Amino acid sequence: MASRIMAVKGLNAAASFRGQLYVNVIVVPSTNADQFEKFCKLNKSCCPKLQRSAPGDTTTKPLVRDSDIRTLLPFYHVLKNGHEVERVTNLTQFPWNDMVAFYIASISHHIEEELIATGILDVSEENMKTVPHYKTNIMCKEAGAFGSPLVVCMFPIPKRLLERTVAVTSRLETLIGTVVHIGDPSVIGIKDITKPYLGNAFDVDMDGVVPVFWPSSLTAHAAVKRAGKYFELFSKST
């Protein structure tokens, strides 16, 4: 009996490669890799692909030397039919000859790092632990079975610092894209800003700040979860 599963790097964590890049990892069978890569190319602002492995390749060069992607990360989410069924600490138990790993830049971590470095965000805030992410009413361009509403991350920015925020994060445009929306969340389909799709809502007085939304690389995860409902991603004998 075959079960449909796929390994995806932990949704609320990121791996730091050489202290330079935060990266999310998604693994799909080679038969679906071209479609997924096309989805990333069509939606570069939310799915900035850094690297694609060859089928069966477990190394992460040139991102990390002498490493095995199956054991490099703290944990992995395993999906079946588009739903998480377990969390594992390594992927060595799964056949790998036909698997392709995609390395996607983690947008929210780079934005957070830039905002903290420039003094726009206060690192002493206890609510800075997990950035909130929301699904929007903006649809991504589809590629085969891969498609999803755009997922965005949000940071509350003091009104007086809005112009500066846009300026400093624009320096990262080639990696993370530009601001998606500033202000009223309902305009992009977010009904309740206190209830994020992933992460924790900021515990701040929103009267003194303005919500600013950037594209999130978790859009790629949402697209993969949706695709898992339509075709077999990875077979394991049971």
Automatic annotation (TrEMBL):
GO molecular function: D-glutamate cyclase activity
Top-level taxon: Eukaryota
GO biological process terms held by the UniProt record: glutamate metabolic process
Coiled coil: none
Stated name of the protein: Uncharacterized protein
Pfam family, one: D-Glu_cyclase
Family membership noted in the UniProt record: Belongs to the D-glutamate cyclase family.
Keywords assigned: Lyase
Alphabetized InterPro entries for the sequence: D-Glu_cyclase, Putative_hydro-lyase
